[in-house]
Amino acid sequence: MPSPASFTTILFPVVLYAVFFLAFFLYACRAFPWMARVKRYCSIKGLIRAVVYFRIGYAGLFTVLQYFAWTEGGRVSAALAHTSLSENIPITLVKIFPFIFEGEFGYFIYYSLSRFWFGAALSLLGAWMFYRFLIALARHEGRFFEEGETELGYLSALIVGWPLSVLFIPLSFIAVVLLSLFRLIFFKEPYTTLGWPFLAAVLVSLIWGGILLALTGLLVLRV
Per the structure, how many domains does the chain have? Predict the structure, then answer.
């Protein structure tokens, strides 16, 4: 049976890139009249829901795949799937919630949480907090946003997830500065909205995120 890792390398980036290009299309073509019909079937809000469901479903799917990979992988891996963890183990989570890990599947639960669910939870929570920040910013500095750009920022943060969101946020504001300078120099327009910078930051994060995390020493944030 193929390991969960072999599925991960194919499924995860394909879905995220597909969502990115759909978001790019929706934003780039937003002014066209025919987009009203397209949005009945595909919208930024719909993509937000899709990515939330995908990240939760991904964690659940690979939890199941990991269990079958262990139980069918021989005596040693099968034993891991049915090993408990004592609260005496120096792991903070186990010490706080010993009743979760002291049962037959204790080690498997801990492994699944640390490998699949913590990353999903941090991605969803981080994106939601960023969205709330954008809403607050839009109330005070509305000139930075066109209609729907707060939702686009939310979707962008969901696409990159944790820990790439740590790069995505500063990259977004760097892109704002660069685009603002470009518009000021060539078009004499002093302000730019955040839509295109969000998309640019997502693309940079998806393509070069691993390299940037390594260069900045942020790989330790990966869970």
Answer: 1
